[in-house]
Amino acid sequence: MANAMPIERLQALDNVEKEIASCIQSAGQALMELSKDKASMKQVESHTSQFLKTLNHVEGELSKHINYLTQVSTGQPHEGSAYGSLKMYKTARHRLEHTRTRLQDLENLKNRALASTVRPTSAQNNP
């Protein structure tokens, strides 16, 4: 599952959706059998068993997908996604721009300080 392409993941989720529909159908058949005057307990148990089996499989598949999505959303490195790397890159670019801005501010401050110390000295030399 971790190496599956996005199309394969979507197909797997489509299959899960179909299994959910099958699960609901099994539950409906079991309830319909129970609503009869002479319900066949064998049929009810068969539909109930199918319902539980499908439900357990759906739960397992959904857990796999949720685990994958949890891994992707936390930025942990995994195959098939560049989210973590892109996030680190953007953060580094932001830090770089901030550092440049701060260095420019310091350069301007230094130039103003030098300009203010140079003016009084030049004014003293030219009476």
UniProtKB/TrEMBL annotation:
Name of the molecule in the record: Mediator of RNA polymerase II transcription subunit 11
UniProt source species: Ceriodaphnia reticulata
Keywords of this entry: Activator, Nucleus, Transcription, Transcription regulation
Alphabetized GO MF terms: transcription coregulator activity
Keyword Acetylation: no
UniProt biased composition (Basic and acidic residues): 101-110
Oligomer and partners: Component of the Mediator complex.
Main location: nucleus
Domain of life of the organism encoding this protein: Eukaryota
GO CC annotations, alphabetized: mediator complex
Any Pfam family: Med11
GO annotation terms (biological process): regulation of transcription by RNA polymerase II
Task of the protein: Component of the Mediator complex, a coactivator involved in the regulated transcription of nearly all RNA polymerase II-dependent genes. Mediator functions as a bridge to convey information from gene-specific regulatory proteins to the basal RNA polymerase II transcription machinery. Mediator is recruited to promoters by direct interactions with regulatory proteins and serves as a scaffold for the assembly of a functional pre-initiation complex with RNA polymerase II and the general transcription factors.
Region Disordered, annotated ranges: 101-127
Protein family membership: Belongs to the Mediator complex subunit 11 family.
Keyword check for Isomerase: no
Chain intervals with Polar residues compositional bias: 118-127
InterPro entries per the UniProt record, alphabetical: Mediator_Med11
Location in or out of the cell: Nucleus
